[in-house]
Amino acid sequence: MALSEAYPEPQPQEAGVHGTEPGHAHAGWKTYVVVGVILTVITALEVAIFYIPALHGVMVPILLALSGAKFFIVALWYMHLKYDSRLFSQVFFAPLSLAVLVVIGMVMLFKVLPGLR
Amino acid sequence: MATLEAMVPATALPHQRQKRLWWDLLTTVDHKKIGLMYGITALFFFVVGGIEATLIRIQLARPENDFLSAEVYNQIFTMHGTTMVFLVGMPIAVALFNYIVPLQIGARDVAFPRLNALSFWIFLFGALFMNSSFLLGAAPNGGWFGYANLTSKQYSPGINIDFWTLGLQALGVASIMGGVNFITTILNLRAPGMRLMRMPLFSWMSLLTSFLLVTALPVFAVALFLVTFDRFWGTNFFVTQAGGDPILWQHLFWMFGHPEVYILILPAFGIISEIIPTFSRKPLFGYAVMVYSGALIALIGWGVWAHHMFATGMGPIADAFFTLSTMIIAIPTGVKIFNWIATMWGGRIRFHTAMLYAVGMIITFTVGGVSGVMHATSPHDLQQTDTYFVVAHFHYVLIGGLILAIFGSLYYWFPKYTGRLLSEKLGKVQFWLFFIGFNLTFMPQHWIGLLGMPRRIFTYSADLGLTGLNQLSTAGVFVQMAGVILLFANVLWSLRRGAPAGPNPWGAATLEWATTSPPPEHNFNRIPEVHTREPLWLEAKAVEEAARGPMEPNLHMPASSYWPVITGFFVVLTFVSFMTHLWWGPLVPLAGVMLGAINWAYED
Amino acid sequence: MATVELSGHPAVRTATGLPMLKLGFWVFLGSETLFFGSLISAYMVYKHESVVGPYSHELLNIPLTSVSTFVLLMSSLAMVLALDNVQRGSRRWGPFWIAMTAALGSLFLGFQAYEFTHFYHEGLTLQTNLFGSSFFVLTGFHGAHVTIGVLWLLLLLVQALRGQLPPGKALQLEVAGLYWHFVDVVWIAIFTLVYLIE
């Protein structure tokens, strides 16, 4: 998609007051509480998995997936990215992707690749 | 909330009581003044760095010379590199982002004017702090890249390295804030109708550079913190006896350091992309490709860093990966060269000095790019790394690429800053002196390097056969110096006696040329609406009418403030106070920072 | 009608229609991901590389840290409730939930302080080994971020109690909320990578 289509024509509208941003839906407090419960449940799951010896082989991928899920849940609901302009998500997830790649790259370079030699 | 008290109506500006200059500059939030302050400071440090370079070349003019001791030589080459990268290259790009970008996108200022001022003051105080080390005879001496564990307390017991780590940490904060500011500005303050793909190339490159600033500088900040904590608080990050790995420093540093060189060069690409179309009287060839190639360079630039580390034994898989990525990045870079040439092709070219610099840049940057591809090949690099071949390469891309573009930008935009033209006669003489001198200094260094002379050594033996080439290299310095002196002379002379320039002396296409030279504080009387990439070629009447016609009513500009300079001072002091060796030392100025920030927030 | 906005001011014509402060702050949070990513990288690179003890598996207390993690998660819930109430103009529940967020954040810091002093008494300092250096620096920077967040919230609490945080200025709290949730999200990463994946 052309970059020019990604961003709207300049709007002479008021910015800065919550609720007036284009395409803005709204989550209520009940949604937030439900999200809070889900986050608690996932955390409890993570801790439980930690204590189950049988799962230790697959523990790392499962834990990474679960904490990744928590990360996105907080970002999308609590930080409102699900309801806000896509630009905020882009501006945040681009550096975040780099950061994840940095961590993976460093682990590869220091821990994985030397083991392969 | 105090809006009326905080803002000064623009219509009142001509009658406003003249502020005293020093107070005006200390409290200004005007992007143009801040840009000029950045630019003048950067040019000052260019002279400092140039003197350091001259001292280096004098020492190396003869084998076994004793002009500089080894100890002093280490400080001089470290400060030369550190100064040129952090106190010249980056600030001069920021100077241009500051001055030009809001004008090019049709804005009245940047998104966060006080934050903008804060970045400048942190830069200035940090730069002064770092250079104050000379007064103590303890300038940083670990190279501009400060490799661990040379920088440990064990091997660098003096305070030299502390000036380096703490000063650069402060400067990094300024850069990150600047990046945030310019991204927000470019995304949010474009004039009506200026879609991103209608934005001038220089503003596009500024956006991409800002993305690199906000992503790469935090990595450097972490690296600097790790070595700072090792030196002050006894941590083990680079202490080999405890299992620490000095290679970790190299990875973190170059993860910052490679995007850093793209931070330095992307603005130069932007400048050339403005000058060439103007003096060829043709739109830039392949605008979209120029944007996408810039974006690719910024992105891939994040994946090539370990090509600085081919000699550290990373293993064949890592070596191959980084060889490949480094070669790939040559493609979008090469594309730009072709597009600039294609822009000139069939154009009505005028060889004003700015154009001479632009064309010269294309040639010498390509030379640097070619030697860069030679480095990309890791087997080759094992021969070339740490020799003068590398020195030749990066000076070709940094002087031949960045500095030529910067000098070109000076000839190009000087009329906009001052309302006067620089002398063309003096300009051409000055250009050739600098261009020839630069090539004389650095072309021989390719051979010097391949013949085996290492970097960062203070002398060499007479029977290595390197004397002649080194002498040639040193001779070039004085030719360059003549060129630079004439450049400064040109600026000083033209400030008073230069031919008056109107709004658009070159007949250029972009919005900054719609308003007067120099622009009023509010930039445009009314913000123009654009429908094309070259507004002054395709819709001049409407755009000029907006810029210089009837004023917009109820215009408010941001008010000056002294909180940026106060806060900036305390930010730098926070890092400096590590040197007290008291664990609570940094907390005191940090309180000052908080006070500054809170007052700033309540100033609204 | 193009007034230039001082950061935080409403009513500006922007090319995206988005508030200046919010956009700039998201960019800043983007840079912070690289900051914490690098710190986490340093920790991961030195995991299990300590030459002398005490070692991570001897000291890290999962049950205790699970509780503090839960506390921080709940503080994020309190934060969104605070914002919701301020946006709706509730002059009672707005300040209440801001205070609750700050309180939970402080409780988390209390857990951190306990953990740090406990480790210290077990013989782990910044200087002891790679684990001490990388653990204290990583969690220390995180704790410093939480501390700044708590101070920021207290300032906003004072404003709210004085009736100076109406719905029109909710953006200030929203931005503080973004910071707060980000710091929570970084802890999610740290909890997994430092404590759970041993």
Summarize this structure briefly.
The complex is a heterotrimer of chains A (117), B (604) and C (198). Chain A has 117 residues and is mostly helical.
Characterize the structure shown.
The complex is a heterotrimer of chains A (117), B (604) and C (198). Chain A is built from 4 helices and no strands. Chain A has helices at residues 3-6, 29-51, 59-78, 86-116. Chain B has 604 residues and is an all-alpha fold. Chain B contains 20 helices and 2 strands. The longest helix of chain B has 36 residues, at 70-105. The model of chain B is unreliable at 1-15 (pLDDT under 50). By secondary structure, chain C is mainly α. Chain C has helices at 20-45, 56-59, 62-87, 93-121, 130-161, 170-196. In chain C, α3 packs antiparallel against α4 (93-121) and α5 (130-161) packs antiparallel against α6.
List the topology elements.
The complex is a heterotrimer of chains A (117), B (604) and C (198).
Chain A: H1 3-6, H2 29-51, H3 59-78, H4 86-116
Helix pairs in contact in A: 2-3
Chain B: H1 3-6, E1 8-9, H2 21-27, H3 31-59, H4 70-105, H5 113-132, H6 160-188, H7 201-233, H8 246-280, H9 287-300, H10 316-328, H11 330-344, H12 353-376, H13 378-384, H14 388-418, H15 424-450, H16 467-497, H17 535-538, H18 540-548, E2 556-557, H19 563-576, H20 587-602
Antiparallel strand pairs in B: 1-2
Chain C: H1 20-45, H2 56-59, H3 62-87, H4 93-121, H5 130-161, H6 170-196
Helix pairs in contact in C: 1-5, 1-6, 3-4, 3-6, 4-5, 5-6
Record keyword descriptors for this entry:
heterotrimer, A: 117 residues, mainly alpha, 0% strand, disordered N terminus, B: 604 residues, two-stranded antiparallel ribbon, 20 helices, 66% helix
Provide mean pLDDT of chain C, rounded: 93
Count every beta strand of chain A, where a strand is a DSSP E run of 2 or more residues.
Answer: 0
Overall strand count of chain C = 0
What distance lies between the first and last C-alpha atoms of chain A, to the nearest angstrom? 43 Å
- Biggest beta-sheet profile of chain C: none
Helix content of chain C: over 70%
What class do helices, strands and sheet pairing of chain C give? mainly alpha
Measured on Cα atoms, how large is the radius of gyration of chain A? 20 Å
Q: Gap between N and C termini of chain C, in Å?
A: 59 Å
How are helices and strands ordered from N to C of chain A? HHHH
Q: What's the tally of helices of chain A?
A: 4
Low-confidence stretches of chain C are 1-10
Please provide the ordered H/E string of secondary-structure elements of chain C.
HHHHHH
